[in-house]
Amino acid sequence: SSSSSSSRDSSGSAGWSCEVRVAHNEEFNLCPSDDRSSHELPGCVVEDMEAQPAQQPAVMQQRWRQLEARAAARTPSIYINHMVWVNFTAFSAGVEQPQAINIIRHPLARVVSEYYYVLWGPRLTPKMLASRTSNMQRTGLDHVADINEYAVAVYGEDAGCVAKERFANKMTRYFCGVHPDCDDPCDPAALQRAKRVLATEYTAVGTLEQLQPSLLLLEQYYPHFFQGMPDFIGSQAKPIRATHVQNMVHPTNATLAILARVNAPDMELFAF
Q1: DSSP 81-117
Q2: Which one, of 29, 80, 22, lies nearest residue 238 by Cα?
Q3: Angle subtended at Cα 10 by Cα 18 and Cα 29, rounded to the nearest 5 degrees
Q4: Which active-site residues does the annotation give?
Q5: Mean pLDDT to the nearest integer, 228-251
Q6: In degrees rounded to 5, what are phi and psi of residue 5?
Q7: Is the pLDDT of residue 2 over 60?
């Protein structure tokens, strides 16, 4: 899930404008620039904010303050990346909680997509080669496993919920946040916290499967960022395509059943 946080109240958006562009390299950017960590246009600042679930709140707090300091004179501002929910008001008095939005994806589609992207993505990198080596070590096979082989070898045909694994239950972990309850996404407390955060702390949550209605929702809440985006996406002669990956073998029904059990919290959260 890619989460975005706006540092301004949407009710005060009159007169704001932020140009929205789509790069021609099949990567979507709000404000493209040579520096992928900071995109700036007149009246707009968009920052990539990297924060993984394992990071400590203090580290995230420091990173957020650095970003806020750079964006203080540029409004509106939005921060984009895969990031867990954090209650910034708990760090110190007077800290404004940013508004959070998210576009999520069906858990099984996300797992399969991420699995092949990590191993056979569009650009060969040292990290990808390392992932392939790790894959063979985990499965015990002499080749990089497809998703069906991986599910049986790593999870097992009778697998239940899996907590500590790269592809498992990311949605629950990200919405739950950094509270101690979130250490184990298979713990019912983590799922309940994730549901509460999703329902009460996010301004809008859309789905990739219903992208057009999701963009319409975001356009209503944040016109200064998303004005015209639904019409733009709907007017494209070619539909938005998924990132091409090599050697993709589609999951069987048996594999999907395994993945559903492994990602049971995410499945329940998605249906919430």
Answers
A1: ESB----GGGTSTTPPPPEEEEEE--HHHHHHHHHHH
A2: 22
A3: 35
A4: 82
A5: 74
A6: -130, 130
A7: no
